[in-house]
Amino acid sequence: MFRSAFPLGRYAGVAVGAHWSVAIVLALISWLLGESVLPASAPGQPALWYWVTAVVTAVLFLASLLAHELTHAVFARHYGMKVKRITLWMLGGMAELEGEPPSPRADLVIAGSGPVTSLLIGGASIGLAYLTGDVLPVLAGTGLAWLGITNLILGMFNLLPGAPLDGGRVLRAAVWKGTGDRMRAVRVAALTGQGLGVALVIVGLAETFFMAQLTGLWLAFIGWFLMAAAQAEVTGGLARQQLGDLRLRAIMDPHPVTAPGWWTVEAFVTHDAATARRRVFPVVSFDGQAVGVVSLAELARLTPQQRLVTRVSDACRTPARFAAPEDKVADVLTKTPVRRGTGLLLVVEDGRLTGTVSTDDLARALELSALGGQHVPA
């Protein structure tokens, strides 16, 4: 999701982007308001004004989602955590934080600040619509009221006690405070999140099949997402607990066999790939810049004639992301997809390749951590 987001600038010092699915949400909200909500609430208005009000209200709603996530980011930085970026997508927004909250109190404040912001925006919008009812045009008042009600619903939904919702993190903070065991708190929050996800899937499917309401599919999709995300919370928590601050520099291969991007595929296969005991290779430019990744399986799909004329740089693919030597291994495990067999993480400094990390390297780091921290390379 982060890779395919387009930038929206920086707010409060945090980079903000939007996933392409935001366009779908913007269109759906505009359609719902322009074709249903606004005509029903304020009949007899010109169609153009319905749509203008609908689009403006939809954009303001996305702005309220951004405010929700920015509040998380501001409080996270207050407690010493780094914020990589905020990405808006079809299920709301996501603030990518580095590290873990230093205390249960910090966890509670960071998690609770987002829903509180949504509730405040909701209350303020409804109050403004009420107080200016005799001044604002009826369509503007209706749009403000819808914005307020939607933010109130969003804030209350986010407070449901299940990870990865903010309410799940509030629950995590409470259990952490009560037991002193953060990993236990992560498991409790994840378990409730999975239970909540299952309930939403059941309700959504029942609404779809027994009440013929297609909105149930959306509810079921949200439930499925909660189940998957809750499991990821447990996986990420275990990885961070086992690996601590272990960095990629400690587990990467600093001298990988590279594929020169300016060579033809045939030349690379004949001279390097045939003798290297590897299936996946980093591709570099003439000056050592990391270009991409290529596997033997991908090269095998080319015809003999294509191998003679195709450069390796034209046959490679851009990796999921370029990592830095000081990136934490735990963050890579939970946030970066590295496909077994054909995946390879390129570690770069100033654009130049300094090493590679494979799925076997990641698995080895986890297994050594499970055997005891003293076995993990420093």
TrEMBL record:
<keyword id="KW-0812">Transmembrane</keyword>
<feature type="domain" description="CBS">
    <location>
        <begin position="312"/>
        <end position="366"/>
    </location>
</feature>
<dbReference type="InterPro" id="IPR046342">
    <property type="entry name" value="CBS_dom_sf"/>
</dbReference>
<dbReference type="InterPro" id="IPR000644">
    <property type="entry name" value="CBS_dom"/>
</dbReference>
<protein>
    <recommendedName>
        <fullName>Zinc metalloprotease</fullName>
    </recommendedName>
</protein>
<feature type="transmembrane region" description="Helical">
    <location>
        <begin position="185"/>
        <end position="206"/>
    </location>
</feature>
<feature type="transmembrane region" description="Helical">
    <location>
        <begin position="12"/>
        <end position="33"/>
    </location>
</feature>
<keyword id="KW-0129">CBS domain</keyword>
<feature type="transmembrane region" description="Helical">
    <location>
        <begin position="48"/>
        <end position="67"/>
    </location>
</feature>
<dbReference type="InterPro" id="IPR008915">
    <property type="entry name" value="Peptidase_M50"/>
</dbReference>
<dbReference type="Pfam" id="PF02163">
    <property type="entry name" value="Peptidase_M50"/>
</dbReference>
<keyword id="KW-1003">Cell membrane</keyword>
<keyword id="KW-0677">Repeat</keyword>
<feature type="domain" description="Peptidase M50">
    <location>
        <begin position="144"/>
        <end position="185"/>
    </location>
</feature>
<feature type="transmembrane region" description="Helical">
    <location>
        <begin position="218"/>
        <end position="239"/>
    </location>
</feature>
<dbReference type="Pfam" id="PF00571">
    <property type="entry name" value="CBS"/>
</dbReference>
<feature type="transmembrane region" description="Helical">
    <location>
        <begin position="143"/>
        <end position="165"/>
    </location>
</feature>
<dbReference type="InterPro" id="IPR016483">
    <property type="entry name" value="UCP006404_Pept_M50_CBS"/>
</dbReference>
<feature type="transmembrane region" description="Helical">
    <location>
        <begin position="108"/>
        <end position="131"/>
    </location>
</feature>
<keyword id="KW-0645">Protease</keyword>
<comment type="similarity">
    <text>Belongs to the peptidase M50B family.</text>
</comment>
<keyword id="KW-1133">Transmembrane helix</keyword>
<keyword id="KW-0862">Zinc</keyword>
<keyword id="KW-0378">Hydrolase</keyword>
<keyword id="KW-0482">Metalloprotease</keyword>
<keyword id="KW-0472">Membrane</keyword>
<feature type="domain" description="Peptidase M50">
    <location>
        <begin position="57"/>
        <end position="130"/>
    </location>
</feature>
<keyword id="KW-0479">Metal-binding</keyword>
